[in-house]
Amino acid sequence: MRHSLFAGGKRLRPILCLAAAEALGARSGELLAAACGLELIHTYSLVHDDLPAMDDAPLRRGAPTSHVVFGEAVAILAGDALLTLGLSVLARHPEGGRHAAARLEVLVSVTQAIGSEGMIGGQVSDLEAERNSLKSPDLLSSIHEAKTGRLIRASATAGGRYAFASEDVLAKLDAYGRALGLAFQIKDDLLDVESDAETLGKRSGSDSAARKLTFPAVWGIDRSRQMLAEKTEEAITRAGSLPGAGRRLVELARFVEQRRA
Hints:
This protein has helices spanning about 1-5, 10-25, 30-50, 65-70, 70-90, 100-115, 120-130, 135-160, 165-195, 195-200, 205-210, 215-220, 220-240, 250-260, and strands at about 60, 65. By secondary structure, it is mostly helical. It is globular. The two termini are about 20 Å apart.
């Protein structure tokens, strides 16, 4: 568990949660544990995504993947344990009766985001898409809105719930997270084509080798870059409609667009 969790990474989901809460006037210090729960859950998904039965990836975050170091069985168990611990952290934090309703709401939102209607369902569709030659833009969007976007959206709204946001503000955070999630995936797909393993910290070119349904495969590189810019600007506009003009949420959108790994 420690091998995969502390190998590095962008920590986008916990930072997104904290930034959303801060934008609404909450103190991020008391939300750190809950934000860490989101990273535990995200790391579980990476451990399982890298397994031989899935992407069979040798590197993640610049380090050998869990199954390469410890074997497939232990990697599966480590992923299971990361997921369980992440949910336990979300169920218990932030502590105290003041956040009792928010804890439950976040737990419901996150479990929906990572289950068969979200991340896992998107992963199944992604695997199925590898086995056929249909390059459908609608299928591409639905896969990545579920597989990548749902947990990003849940992380943004989690920060809002911890800050006791209204339903209107939560809807704005969700719209921001949806645009950010697609921007993140488009950039990920572009980096797989344009970057190298040393920079990425993982194997490059693996998506095309596995015949995955990606934005460059469907739309081409130039159009994918244009879509990345469009989704980034949409996220920035959504953030600007929030109290305090979104504060660090705007910076996060720019980071997603400009990142190199």
